[in-house]
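Need a sequence for this fold. Nothing fancy.
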């Protein structure tokens, strides 16, 4: 719907078929790329912690979409998951001076799929409605 609405509006403004088609494709692609890049930012992630020696499978559902993992210190500071490995060459052993108490995983459960789709669809349909309104206004102005 967004592509059609943009196509009609751009076609009315540019008045050249090939240029209008190319510009419509670029504009539609940019909107979809932007919304797709933000798709999983619309809803908050769930965070679970586990011991450093623990496994992600134990705390995260298998159907979840993992967003981030790392290590936590006693002050709550987040470290990258490879911070201990850089010093000890072992993923499950951390030096005492790093003060690592646990590891964490951030993920979106499968129940976030449809709400994210709903938000994304409404973010694409809103500019489609604006473009359609502009197209009708342009067509009406050209007929008068």
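Here you go.
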């Amino acid at each position: 719907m967004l592509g059609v609405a943009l196509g009609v509006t751009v076609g009315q403004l540019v008045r050249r078929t090939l240029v209008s088609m190319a510009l419509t494709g670029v504009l539609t692609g940019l909107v979809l790329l932007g919304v797709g890049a933000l798709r999983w930012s619309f809803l908050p992630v769930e965070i679970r912690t586990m011991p450093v020696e623990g496994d992600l499978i134990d705390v995260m559902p298998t159907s979840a979409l993992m967003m981030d993992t790392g290590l936590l210190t006693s002050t709550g500071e987040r470290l990258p998951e490879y911070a201990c490995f850089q010093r000890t060459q072992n993923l499950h052993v951390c030096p005492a001076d790093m003060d690592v108490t646990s590891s964490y995983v951030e993920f979106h459960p499968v129940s976030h799929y449809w709400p994210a789709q709903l938000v994304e669809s409404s973010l694409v349909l809103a500019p489609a409605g604006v473009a359609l309104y502009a197209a009708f206004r342009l067509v009406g102005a050209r007929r008068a």
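For context: The longest strand covers residues 65-73.
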